[in-house]
Write a structure and sequence with these properties.
Chain B: InterPro entries: ABC/ECF_trnsptr_transmembrane, ECF_transporter_component, EcfT. The complex is a heterodimer of chains A (289) and B (266). Helices cover 42% and strands 22% of the residues of chain A. Chain A has twelve helices and ten strands. In chain A, helix 4 packs across helix 6 (151-163). Chain A is globular and about 70 Å long. Chain B has helices at 16-19, 22-38, 42-59, 63-68, 74-87, 103-129, 132-143, 153-183, 193-224, 243-265, and strands spanning 92-96, 99-102. By secondary structure, chain B is mainly alpha-helical. Classes of the chains: A alpha/beta (289), B mainly alpha (266). The interface between A and B is medium-sized, with 25 and 23 residues. The complex binds adenosine-5'-triphosphate and magnesium ion. Magnesium ion binds at residues 46-47, 94, 173 of chain A.
């Protein structure tokens, strides 16, 4: 079971002077249970790419298969299956708090499940569950207006609204953009929990190499609509030239280790996380003594 | 979905029409449309059609795009044509129930439809070759003489500029909110009118909220930069009337003279 992209291309506003090829023959497979990060410079096509994962955009060329079902199927039977497949993929947009519209938080979270035909006791269960997952106490928040919340809380409500759909795959487009450091960390921990405890397959778009290094088990680097790298973060960050060509920088820790090495200090320079990096430097120091 | 709408249908380019002073373009267009109404003999219409065709070719805008601007009004054109077919007294050709098709009717129908088509094509040529911002500048400049009668020319133009500036932003936002709600299973394409209207609520509420927020922020930002309205403001790209424009005006004067001559001689 997986999401599979085969040679996906997409052009915005084709056949006009504003034509722009946003994706160019992108192919990869996202296995169930994986945690994939997507990185790339501004305008490299990340958002366009993730919108293909639940059929919001249909590829101009190529195919998107969710658990083997083609999302762009056009036959009547095919459309029904495609709808069902789309429901397996939950999508959290950039600044999701802008999509809140109901009078109470509970009603807003209920919007998705209601569209799926869920009612009564089960609906309430789902609301409660997804609010607790996102760290919003049900009794305290359910009857409050979403517009009275802080930005970070609003975002939690919006993500809860997607979780209430019980997706199997969860796609997050820059979920931490614009949050303060504490809010960021809390949200990242929540995403980790969703991955580990709830066995959700996660795809997340991020600019933060440190986050990618410690969270993801695989990273896709986009460059001008093409996929430049798909590998484990460890390997991806070693390809410094490709990274730089894609307008990205290796994690700060790795950068430091590289610089130390250039300066003639023999450190082990394949640590991408803070802790392992510190360990590598300690080892080099004790060796020197 | 919504991404295919281009606002003001401006088609970037560098043709003669693109380089003309927008004020001259607007004035000549208005006069041209007036003449289309005033001179309604066959020769004049031949000339008008020829001019429109030449302009279309000069503009460098693909013909299919120009013709597409007729599409929304296609039914009106057809309707006018049919009405005129049957509502003119004259030599009868055929009778359908209560209505008589007349020879004069056919002529009149063709005439009126052609008039409509010319009106639409010429006006869309203006919007195809003039960016919305230039158009508002032209409007401000053309309306400024009326300021002394209390017409807020600058304010009107500023309002239009802001509206034009934010339409693409709002479309983008609508697109995004729509996609977000679709991801939560919202359905905007099925059901009867009432149901569809109700389905719009999840889009409209966030859209209005953000529009109000934006308006607020913009007002604040303008005030912070000491915006005080129109008096004494200059423009970064001021409009200039050049050689092409005098040529066009000259051509137009000759055209008018010729049309008057034809009209008087018949
Ligand atoms: N609705 C649209 N219409 C036309 N072009 C678009 C549209 N959306 C995106 N593009 C273009 O497609 C390209 C890819 O956009 P996309 O939003 O996928 O980039 P991104 O990698 O998500 O960037 P960011 O990091 O800024 O979010 C950009 O160059 C953008 O200008
Ligand atoms: Mg993006």
């Amino acid at each position: 079971m997986s999401i599979e992209l085969k040679q996906v291309s997409y052009t915005y506003m084709p056949k006009t002077p504003y034509e722009h090829k946003a994706l160019d023959a992108v192919s990869f497979t996202l296995e169930e249970g994986s945690f994939t990060a997507i990185a790339g410079h501004t305008g490299s096509g990340k958002s366009t790419l993730v919108q293909h994962l639940n059929g919001l955009l249909h590829p101009e060329n190529g195919q998107v298969l969710v658990d083997g079902t083609d999302l762009a199927a056009s036959s009547k039977q095919g459309r029904k299956e495609a709808m069902a497949a789309r429901n397996k993929v939950g999508m959290v947009f950039q600044y999701p708090e802008q999509q809140l519209f109901e009078e109470t938080i509970a009603a807003d979270i209920a919007f998705g499940p209601k569209n799926q035909g869920i009612e009564g006791k089960e609906l309430e269960e789902r609301i409660k569950e997804s609010m607790e997952l996102m760290g919003l106490a049900y009794d305290e928040f359910k009857d409050r207006s979403p517009f009275q919340l802080s930005g970070g809380q609003k975002r939690r409500v919006a993500i809860a609204g997607v979780l209430a759909l019980h997706p199997k795959y969860l796609v997050l487009d820059e979920p931490t953009a614009g949050l303060d450091p504490l809010g960021r960390e809390a949200l990242i921990q929540t995403i980790c929990k969703l991955h580990k405890k709830w066995k959700l397959t996660i795809v997340f778009v991020s600019h933060n190499m440190e986050d990618i290094a410690r969270l993801a088990d695989s990273v896709i680097i986009m460059n001008h609509g093409k996929m430049a790298i798909k590998a484990a973060p460890q390997e991806a960050f070693m390809q410094t030239e490709l990274l730089q060509a894609a307008g990205l920088q290796e994690p700060a820790m790795l950068h430091l280790l590289h610089r130390l090495r250039e300066a003639g200090i023999p450190v082990n320079d394949n640590a991408i996380e803070l802790e392992t990096g510190i360990k590598a430097i300690r080892e080099a120091l004790s060796d020197a003594e | 979905m919504l991404s295919n709408i281009t606002i003001g249908q401006y088609f970037p380019g560098n043709s003669i029409l693109h380089r003309m002073d927008p004020r001259v373009k607007v004035l000549l267009l208005l006069l041209f449309l007036l003449e289309v109404f005033l001179f309604s003999n066959a020769v004049a219409y031949g000339i008008f059609s020829a001019i429109t065709l030449v302009m279309m070719l000069l503009s460098g805008v693909p013909l299919c795009m120009l013709l597409r601007s007729l599409k929304p009004l296609w039914w009106i054109i057809l309707f006018t044509f049919v009405i005129h077919l049957f509502s003119n007294p004259g030599t009868p050709i055929a009778t359908v129930w209560l209505f008589t098709l007349t020879w004069e009717g056919i002529q009149m129908g063709c005439f009126i439809s052609l008039r409509l088509i010319l009106l639409i094509l010429m006006s869309s040529l203006l919007t195809f070759t003039t960016s919305p911002l230039k158009l508002t500048d032209a409007m401000e400049s053309l309306l400024s003489p009326f300021r002394r009668f209390g017409l807020p020319a600058h304010e009107l133009a500023m309002m239009m500029t802001i509206a034009l500036r934010f339409i693409p932003t709002l479309i983008e936002e609508t697109d995004k909110i729509m996609k977000a709600q679709q991801s939560r299973g919202a359905d905007f394409t099925t059901g009867n009118v009432m149901k569809r209207l109700r389905n719009m609520v999840p889009i409209l509420v966030p859209l209005f909220l953000s529009a109000f927020r934006r308006a607020d922020e913009l007002a604040m930002a303008m005030e912070a930069r000491c915006y005080r309205g129109g008096i004494g403001r200059t423009q970064m790209k001021s409009l200039k009337t050049g050689g092409i424009d005098y040529l066009a005006i000259g051509g137009f004067v000759i055209l008018t003279a010729a049309l008057l001559g034809i009209k008087l001689s018949t």
